[in-house]
Amino acid sequence: MSMEKNRTLVQKTAPGTLQLNQLHVPDIILDDNSIVTMPNRMDIDVVSYCENNITLLNELDRICHAEKASKFHIHPDAPQFFLM
Fold this sequence. Notes:
This protein is mainly alpha-helical. It has one domain (2-66). Helices cover 37% and strands 5% of the residues. It is built from three helices and two strands. It has helices at 2-12, 46-52, 54-66, and strands at 28-29, 35-36. It has a two-stranded antiparallel sheet. It is flat, with a radius of gyration of 19 Å.
């Protein structure tokens, strides 16, 4: 399955060196309901998946919109850690 390939690729590839065309991605549904098929697409029917999981997707959307946006501030004198 594509998600397993993506997971393995992300785990074995250093951050910043992963090329997006290496990942398997879902098709894109546009506002006019047309579907953009990606060359490195996942083998799933996005429309059927959305229709079958609409309750879950609506709940996730509700939870995301219920979260308050906030900014965080790092004080200029805070210690800095550099990983090499």
